[in-house]
Amino acid sequence: xxxxxxxxxxxxxxxxxxxxxxxxxxxxxxxxxxxxxxxxxxxxxxxxxxxxxxxxxxxxxxxxxxxxxxxxxxxxxxxxxxxxxxxxxxxxxxxxxxxxxxxxxxxxxxxxxxxxxxxxxxxxxxxxxxxxxxxxxxxxxxxxxxxxxxxxxxxxxxxxxxxxxxxxxxxxxxxxxxxxxxxxxxxxxxxxxxxxxxxxxxxxxxxxxxxxxxxxxxxxxxxxxxxxxxxxxxxxxxxxxxxxxxxxxxxxx
Length: 253
Description:
Order of helices and strands: HHEEEEEEEEEEEEEEEE
CATH class of the largest domain: Mainly Beta
Distance between the termini: 61 Å
Low-confidence stretches: 1-10
Helix content: 10-25%
Strand content: 35-45%
């Protein structure tokens, strides 16, 4: 076979080869072994729970994590739950949830380790919730549309910072798919902006300019400044800079 006729090793071809091998293996098992062995294997496969976003409290006494929810046999998990346990004894774990059968993630601990905040779509759109870990239901802090990610507590524990994309309901990161442009290219933009959330119920307030798409941010220890990575839409180049919060807005230093 000449190099011209040889199949290229693209990701799609790799996936197709894997699927073909999987079907061939399944056919062999079905021909040589009882069907209940395949059924048992499928049940074990679908029963696997994934754990992610492990976060240790600042005082080191407790740990929180995100875990996929169990589902009916033959169906993949569709929801996630947040669990909290003592670091030295994880047997008495407690679930922190804003509602059943929801996607809950984005854990961030308060500086005093007495509470945590997270994201949940239990009411449809993803919102910010806060839990004092005292057995009471979590408090809903926002009522906004769009997509939220990157939740972080401020150093003083009174506010939360989060990345907010107002007009889309999915992750708009640099490696995520974007809807096809229609109309005048570049005229309609959906920048991801840095926003603050007041723990006292003040809602969500965007502080970065709509002229910049914010990819990442990191607050200073005193909570007065942010280091951010941003780019002007349509994300042709990145800017790394230090920005200060002034009268509720960001100003570059």
